[in-house]
Design a protein that fits this description.
With 609 residues, the protein is an alpha+beta fold. It contains 20 helices and eleven strands.
């Protein structure tokens, strides 16, 4: 009998020190991996919060708007000369004149032509639109004096939103005595109330002097280098060829002219720095203010004075709003207002600031929600621009996209998954569909430009063309999502239908497709959300045009919300920057809603097999 060798049984080492050390190493590695994952999630969340917070902070001012409530007398001679009470005639009436007259009545001291033009500029070019519609709806208002809210201009609206400059107010400590109520006046203070402003101005002169000296030193080094080069040009090294004397003389002359010009500039900077430093060293010397520095205003006795000359206990300036009296103003009854941004760099001048403050003191300014942002189209005036045109254009474009890509995508997915033969051609089609889902979106824009515009001659900047281009972009996504939803349905469903006598087509359309529909709809919504945020392909088909009118059809000129955001982001006005962020917020809300709907559909109709 042959002995059978039993295999050696290998025992696992789980109790030795080496085994325990290996286990600890694995546990530490797992702990580090978890920490890495948590750090990645936390970092992503921080970036997301920072981005959304920045967008919200910048966009919130666009959702409010300031209006001026004026008592407007609707003169029939200007609004309805024939007294017809015909809405068509009233709509063509002059509503600007009564609104301007109502505003000018608040500032009767503004009699110069430039001042009146500046005062009228506080109102928006569309200030009377709402008043016009109100009177057209009720012609009986003609001839009455009504309280009408009129829209303010961009610079007035920004001022009331505290955007554009830092404003500081300092209460007075002493008694102030003005020398007059209008024109150029002098204000004396018993407690050196203007000393802090003088010290601040002196310190800024010292800082500017240092900066000017640095510029002068830099130019001085350049001059020295040019002088060395001039000397080198006049000396011919031994063994060198004789240069062209005429050309050399011309070059030396040009160099000397440049040296002279730079030397003059250096002397000018040195003198400027010395002057600034001298003004800083003389602490009790009065200083003159100009538009290149911060503005200093004194609000006293119901008026406003712009300071042009400043000393410790006295200022001289120009009256922007007339003072009610020349009486002494007690401590705490007058104040010094500083506008950090120089007048030359602000949209609202000091005179306009004084008017705006007077209007606010009279309680004529109100802030309301900016419904015009949602109900008006684009405009060159920031306070009138809205996103209704872009919203309507987006809705029409997405409608065209949906009615094209949904039936085609679902039909293609059903055919490829259930009816197509499994051969080489089918494999090539499937690979190309998967590759198309990763193609950059701008390629689809080039395709739309070549086919739909150049070849087929469809109208440029139309929702029809935009919808066709976005349908090509979204179609691979819908096909892939629909095939995945069809695959998720258990084969037993189809086999059971076939077993009771249903045809292959009946089994698919009556049983498999209804069960796959939640997944198909989820993929469709995600694809449409992708299309909603696309910009690059639409730029190439002309939807970047400035569109004021609201589109009413598939072939009307239109734009979409992402393109509107792109257009506004390129404009320099501060209000358009706020509207850009506000439009981004609206777009994000739509995207969140669409993705939320996809999640809800998946959770609501999802089945566990």
């Amino acid at each position: 009998m042959t002995d059978i060798a039993m295999p050696t049984v290998r025992t696992a080492d789980v109790a030795s020190d080496q085994a325990r050390a290996r286990v600890r190493v694995r546990y530490r590695a797992e702990t580090r991996f978890r920490l890495y994952g948590l750090c990645a999630i936390a970092l992503t969340a921080v970036f997301l919060v920072v981005v959304i917070t920045d967008i919200v902070i910048k966009g919130l001012p666009a959702f409010t708007q300031h209006r001026l409530v004026l008592p407007v007398k609707l003169d029939p001679a200007e609004i309805d000369p024939q007294n017809t009470r015909n809405p068509t005639v009233i709509r063509q009436g002059d509503f600007q004149a009564p609104v301007r007259d109502a505003l000018r009545a608040i500032f009767p001291e503004v009699t110069d032509r430039a001042g009146r033009r500046m005062l009228d500029g506080l109102l928006s070019s569309g200030a009377v639109d709402r008043l016009r519609e109100r009177v057209v709806a009720d012609p009986q208002l003609v001839g009455q004096t009504i309280s009408a809210p009129v829209l303010l201009s961009e610079r007035a609206d920004l001022y009331y939103k505290d955007i554009g400059t830092a404003i500081s107010r300092r209460a007075s400590r002493g008694t102030a005595t003005p020398s007059a109520t209008s024109g150029d006046i002098t204000i004396f203070s018993t407690a050196n109330d203007f000393a802090p402003d003088l010290i601040t101005l002196k310190q800024s002169l010292s800082v500017k002097a240092r900066a000017v000296r640095r510029d002068a030193d830099s130019l001085r080094q350049v001059v020295r280098g040019l002088e060395v080069r001039r000397v080198e040009m006049t000396v011919t090294p031994p063994g060198a060829t004789t240069p062209n004397t005429v050309l050399l003389a011309t070059q030396i002359k040009q160099l000397e002219e440049e040296i002279a010009s730079l030397s003059a500039r250096v002397k000018e900077l040195d003198d400027q720095a010395a002057s600034m430093q001298g003004r800083f060293d003389t602490t009790d010397r009065p200083e003159t203010l100009d538009s290149s520095g911060p503005s200093l205003l004194v609000a006293i006795n119901g008026g406003v004075v712009k300071v042009t000359e400043l000393s410790n206990g006295r200022v001289a300036g120009t009256v922007l709003l007339p003072l009610e009296t020349m009486a002494d103003a007690a401590a705490g009854r007058w104040e010094v207002v500083t506008y950090a941004t120089p007048e030359a760099n602000r949209k609202a001048s000091d005179r306009e600031v004084a008017w705006l403050e007077r209007l606010r003191e009279k309680g004529l300014v109100e802030s309301a929600f900016n419904w015009a942002f949602f109900v008006t189209g684009d405009s060159r005036e920031p306070e009138l621009a809205g996103i209704r045109g872009a919203l309507v254009g987006s809705a029409i474009t997405l409608f065209v996209t949906l009615i094209i890509c949904l039936p085609l995508g679902v039909a293609a997915a059903i055919y490829l998954e259930e009816f197509a033969p499994k051969n080489r051609l089918t494999e090539i089609v499937e690979v190309n569909i998967n590759n198309l889902a990763a193609v950059p979106s701008i390629v689809f824009g080039l395709l739309g430009l070549a086919i739909f515009l150049n070849f087929m001659g469809l109208p440029r900047s139309a929702p029809l063309v935009g919808g066709l281009v976005l349908a090509l972009l979204v179609l691979p996504t819908i096909i892939i999502a629909s095939r995945a939803a069809l695959k998720a349905v258990p084969p037993s469903i189809k086999e059971a239908a076939l077993g009771v006598g249903a045809s292959h087509q009946q089994a698919i359309f009556h049983h498999v497709l209804p069960l796959a529909m939640p997944g198909i709809m989820t993929g469709t919504i995600i694809g449409m959300a992708h299309a909603l945020g696309e910009t690059a392909p639409l730029l190439l088909i002309g939807m970047v045009a400035f569109i004021v009118e609201i589109p009413g059809g598939l072939t009307d000129a239109a734009t979409v919300l992402p393109v509107q955001i792109y257009l506004w982001s390129d404009l320099p006005e501060i209000s358009f920057q706020a509207k850009t962020a506000a439009a981004i917020m609206v777009l994000l809300v739509f995207l969140f809603v669409m993705n939320g709907a996809a999640i809800i559909l998946r959770k609501r109709f999802e089945r566990r097999w």
